[in-house]
Amino acid sequence: MATPASSPTSSALNTGKVQGRRKLNFSRPEDAIADARALAAAEAAGKLERLGNWSPGQCFGHVAAFIDYAFDGYPPNMPTPPWFIVIMARLFKRRLLKGFPAGMRLKGVEGGTLGIEPISTAEGLTRLESAFARLARSAPTKPNLIFGVMTHDEWLVMHLRHAELHQSFLRVRA
After folding, report:
1. End-to-end CA distance of the chain
2. Which of 105-109, 111-115, 133-137: highest mean pLDDT?
3. Does residue 54 belong to any structural domain of this protein?
């Protein structure tokens, strides 16, 4: 299978239809970090297969960016979800925190989301490790744009599901 271009806008795959993704279930930040380190090692050995549009650095950096946004505030170009989406999401928060669907895009944002600048795998991994360490120490104090105020456990679960989603598009070739 060919490796897609690393640019978020060049011949992007519809990731909602990608077959063969890994099934992941991270219970704690250390699980996500261990998997990311294994993926980085596989890439260094020439044994990494990308099923999605992003490089490992982009995947790791994107998840890290959203953890950091929860602490530092969301960027000004982050669209505010419509009120009816917020109401529905809050009603179904438990269900939504069980996993994220692939292929979602933020309306009006180039590339469909934020925090996807091309960066090296090493830099992305460093950012991911730092962001998860920060999240493990304490909960963000800013409300989530969709779910509002969340407990520390909810923040952890949400970001672990986010890491599962993006890391599922990366797998080690035998």
Report:
1. 14
2. 133-137
3. yes
Tell me whether strands 170-172 and 48-50 are parallel, antiparallel or unpaired.
Answer: antiparallel
Taking the complete model, does pTM exceed 0.85, yes or no?
Answer: yes
Rounded distance between C-alpha atoms, residue 145 and residue 22, angstroms: 28
Give domain status of residue 18, yes or no. Answer: no
Query: Is there a domain that residue 1 lies in?
Result: no
Domain range holding 139? 25-103+111-172
**What average pLDDT is seen over the chain?**
89
How many other CB atoms are found less than 10 A from the CB of residue 46?
7
* Contact predicate 135/75, CB 8 Å: no
| pLDDT confidence bin for 10, thresholds 50/70/90 | very low
Distance from C-alpha of 135 to C-alpha of 152, rounded to nearest angstrom: 8
- What is the C-alpha to C-alpha distance for residues 29 and 128, in angstroms, rounded to an integer? 10
Asked if the model's pLDDT at residue 164 lies above 90, the reply is: yes
**Per the domain annotation, does 5 fall within a domain?**
no
